[in-house]
Amino acid sequence: MPSEHTEVQVRPGVEGDLDALTALYNHYVLETAITFDTAIFTPEERRPWLLSHPEDGPHRLMVATAPDTRRILGYSTSSPFRMKPAYATSVETTVYVAPDAGRRGVGTLLYKALFEALAGEDLHRAYAGIALPNEASARLHERFGFRHVGTYREVGRKFGRYWDVAWYEKPL
């Protein structure tokens, strides 16, 4: 299916995407340790997150949609790395792909669009935390120039066990 992912459309996220984005994220909350959130969100609870990612500036939300149905296949974001002012030129990036859309290049298309959108911004570094194990995410980040800079051991507890998080860094 090499041509399938080339027809996937990637665009900035908009308020009309809120329900689908919330449902996608809630899947990862309930089923995986990829996020350390432990309770699902309503779309209204998730609205401030969506609104914190405008169409311009350093904090973006990119959405991938299926060519035929316009169903959301995944999203990528750049968000504040830390809230203190000296961190303003650093962002934390992430990608979430619908469970049935993996291994089709959607994550690659999302990160490509995100980093193209960020190219003109006053940013110095991007960081990504990957709950382990997650070989697919590590490979994706390495393809985009991230390098592993350290691992927090047993930093999060979910599903009755502790999880490590590997941290990756990319110059911008």
Features:
single chain, 4 helices, alpha+beta, disordered N terminus, 7 strands, 172 residues, 7-stranded mixed sheet, globular
Walkthrough of the structure:
β4 (90-97), α3 and β5 (125-131) form a beta-alpha-beta unit. α1 (18-31) crosses α2. A seven-stranded mixed sheet has the order 1-2-3-4-5-7-6, sandwiched between helices. Mean pLDDT is 94; it is low at 1-5. The chain is globular, with a radius of gyration of 16 Å. It contains four helices and seven strands. The termini are far apart. 26% of the residues lie in helices and 33% in strands. It is an alpha+beta fold. It has helices spanning 18-31, 43-51, 106-118, 135-143, and strands spanning 9-12, 61-65, 72-80, 90-97, 125-131, 147-158, 161-171.
From the structure provided, what is the oligomeric state, counting identical versus distinct chains? single chain
Strand order of the largest sheet: 1-2-3-4-5-7-6
H/E order of the elements? EHHEEEHEHEE
Average per-residue pLDDT, rounded, comes to: 94
Distance between the termini: 32 Å
Low-pLDDT residue intervals, each spanning 5 or more residues: 1-5
Strand fraction equals: 25-35%
Radius of gyration computed on alpha carbons: 16 Å
The total beta strand count reads 7
**Structural class assignment:** alpha+beta
Helical segment count:
4
Shape: globular
Sheet with the most strands, sense and barrel status: 7 strands, mixed
- Residue share in helix: 25-40%
